[in-house]
Amino acid sequence: MSLSYRAAQTVIKRGDEEALRTALDQHLDPNLTNQNGWSLLMLAAVEGSVPLGQLLIEKGANLVALNGKGDTPLSIATQKGHTAFIELLHGHGA
Questions:
Q1: Which end of the chain has fewer CB atoms < 10 Å from its terminal CB, N or C?
Q2: C-alpha–C-alpha distance, residues 51 and 35, integer Å
């Protein structure tokens, strides 16, 4: 059974790489968004979690997705000052 967006958000906020990997292996869409267009990769960018970001990217997360306010994972990481996450995104072509 796949996680809901809310449950995936909780896993990302906790930084639980194992739970996220399991959910993705069980067909959680790496491009799942909420009603405002926030993707899972954007949530990882908010947290600055490089391991979770790397995992989502490996599973096909869209690096240039836009939320309802026009933010991308890169712009969110930049706003939050998460340098390592910015480097991760740049390393994958964002």
A1: N
A2: 25
Predicted confidence (pLDDT) per residue in 19-76, tens digit: 999 999 999 999 999 999 999 999 999 999 999 999 999 999 999 999 999 999 999 9
> pTM for this one?
0.96
75: tokens are 């712009």
List, in order of start, the domains of the chain with CATH numbers. Answer: 5-91 (1.25.40.20)
Structure tokens at 43: 């949530």
